[in-house]
Amino acid sequence: xxxxxxxxxxxxxPWRPTPKALIPTYLGILATILxxxxxxxxxxxxxxxxxxxxxxxxxxxxxxxxxxxxxxxxAAKNAAVAAIITSGALVAVFPVxxxxxTVIARGVKGIYLGFFTTDMGLASVNDPLxxxxxxxxxxxxxxxxxxxxxxxxxxxxxxxxxxxxxxGPGTRLIRFLIQAMSxxxxxxxxxxxxxxxxxxxxxxxxxxxxxFALAILMLPTVARTAxxxxxxxxxxLREAGLALxxxxxxxxxxxxxxxxxxxxITAVILGVARIAGETAPLLFTTGGGDxxxxxPVDGVMGSIPFAIWKxxxxxxEESNAxxxxxxxxxxxxxxxLFFSARRLGKVRR
Amino acid sequence: xxxxxxSSTPKPRxxxxxxxxxxxxxxxxxxxxxxxxxxxxxxxxxxxGARGFEILAREGLSxxxxxxxxxxxxxxxxxxxxPSVYGxxxxxxxxxxIAFIAIAIxxxxxxxxxxxxxxxxxxxxxxFLVGVIDLMAAFPSILFGLWGFNILMPSGxxxxxxxxxxxxxxxxxxxxxxxxxxxxxxxxLVLSIMIIPIVTSIAREVFSQTPLDRIQAAYALGATKxxxxxxxxxxxxxSGVVGGAMLGLGRAMGETVAVFTVLNIVxxxxxxxxxxxxxxxxxxxxxxxxxxxxxxxxxxxxxxxMLFLLTLIVNMLADLxxxxxxxxxx
Lengths: 349, 330
Hints:
The complex is a heterodimer of chains A (349) and B (330).
Chain A: H1 19-42, H2 47-71, H3 73-107, H4 135-166, H5 171-181, H6 186-198, H7 207-232, H8 235-243, H9 248-259, H10 261-276, H11 280-285, H12 304-314, H13 317-348
Helix pairs in contact in A: 1-2, 2-3, 3-13, 4-7, 4-10, 4-12, 5-7, 6-7, 7-10, 8-9, 10-13, 12-13
Chain B: H1 2-7, H2 21-34, H3 36-59, H4 62-65, E1 69-70, E2 85-86, H5 89-120, H6 123-138, H7 141-167, H8 184-208, H9 212-220, H10 225-254, H11 257-262, H12 281-289, H13 294-329
Antiparallel strand pairs in B: 1-2
Helix pairs in contact in B: 3-13, 5-8, 5-10, 6-8, 7-8, 8-10, 9-10, 10-13, 12-13
């Protein structure tokens, strides 16, 4: 043990405001809270909007007043804009909180074990909540997602490989078209499949057609995300592959794609998340059955969005509760997909 | 034998960039896959056009400008006395009105959120908020519809009444009958929330491309944060943000389920946005599809083609604007 301990000076933070300098800030916060209360209590403003609007207004006013008194006109403007921009960001996030809260609060009432193991084949919309379930919809959505993935992933990833690896003729055009395609309204995809495969052909609705419509919507998401992922792969890896004497397809297949594997999986997951809740295209293609149907090429097939749609349209109290329960299931599915995609995306970087 | 080989000069090896057979096959396969977007977009236009051609040819320009939608043929094949008339003019106007309400509300909020995320937010909050807004982009539209109908609509009605009470002298906020439920204003409100994530993420990307030296130059000249944003960030990001707003516009025009849930669809051109009557091409197609006759289906296909072309043009313009700004920064 050494005896001469070095006295380490305590780190100082001279940029920290002194307690005295913070007094106006605290007073300002107090004044805002008080002022908001007074405004709500003594004027006609009512409801959450009124409270929020008056809080924003007073925060803006008081913070700019303090800054103005301390540091002049420019500082006052700066503080006012900062308050407005921050409240804008709050407004943007508020719907998510409200949506999550509402769906969870209303959805759990309709969930029971049988909800996942029975279908609506023998239940009517007015039956109590402990009869019937959405097994048919879960099965249908799962089958359609699998088929849509099988169709759109090869096309989407080869588009991405063409844009990043081959860069042949028409690269710019194809990139442009993929962007344009991602803006195609979902209802148009449904109408297109209906007009091309169902209308006038004598064929009925089935799950395969629904999956095709979903694949159209999934393709641009997969292609764009995969392209971004492939662009992140270091050029050195490609050159190393070619320098070892590999042909281009072996470089792509054995160097580039394995290196980008987790990113490509992210692309697929994001694509699935995009289509899992699509409703409009399925209304034109699947027919939306109430009975569990395992055959995608024969007969109407249910899906979670279609089940929600049906429950919503019929309008009885029980079916409304069922709609909320189904949307809770859908929301959980989408969130699981979303967070696993983010997780994988983080590992990559 | 051995001598002969040693004396002969080796044949010069040809160095070429010509791809091998395996690469040729690879490129052909990948190219075919890459053409899928072109093929699908063309097929959409061709099939919808072919099915809707009969109606488009008969109605001519009045398909776009006409306000009346009346099918004389019933679903069971019997024909009425009056001839069928198909015009989507009212619905087109409704689509545009609702989409503009959506961007009028949604874009300022998105710009504020993007500025906050880029220049104001502390690091921890930034990561969290970006995640929340991205998650919002993944929410299905039927969720927004259901939420909008049950939660947002009561508040929206109250706000509409306030607007009418205090700003009713502006023709836009006037109503002929006091019926505020299921109005274009409320549909636009729901759509404005749906486009916030798209517009915010594009505005965020555009703003983050602002050259750092210009930002620092502004600060060095004594700018406050706001004067820096006004003098550097906003001029730089202007066209990119306009592009982002147009992408939001395209999405709002094509939205079906959420609009159908909250809007009272009436065939008339309604410029009183607070009045509970309006239209939208996409939700009109859903409404009419169920009990449409074969002829009406053709008319719906033609309406779908118009919607497709409209959104395609808006999206392409938006994409050009966005990519120009983003490239300029890099």
